[in-house]
Amino acid sequence: MIGNSNKPTPEGKKYTPSYEPIAAQRPFKKSHVEADKNWEVEVVFGDDKGGNGELLDPVIIRHKEHGGQVCVATQTPSGVPFRGDVMYEILENYVKKEIATAFSVDANRKLAMTWARVKKL
Length: 121
Hints:
Blueprint: E1 5-8, H1 10-15, E2 22-23, E3 28-29, H2 30-35, E4 39-44, E5 46-47, E6 55-56, E7 59-63, E8 69-72, H3 83-99, H4 111-120
Antiparallel strand pairs: 1-2, 1-5, 3-6, 4-7, 7-8
């Protein structure tokens, strides 16, 4: 068990308000992610310094080639009362607002919508 307590980062305070300091027992290590040429840290919600720390949890990392993402949150062998809230907040406040909007499409400018308007004439 790693004895440090992870604290919310500025991003953690913004996106995961339910996150509270917790013993980082199975965190990603920033130096390990940075040493791997395939992965990069996307966003850190909590670390051992409350910002720019080494022990990352909760965190999202991204694969540099294909963009796949991995998220860990409150990795402990015992239950964490706020784990579900934090996961919900990551999905609702970060993924939905920061990631999903990047893939939004204006349907009115797509061929199917144009064809539907033409057929109505």
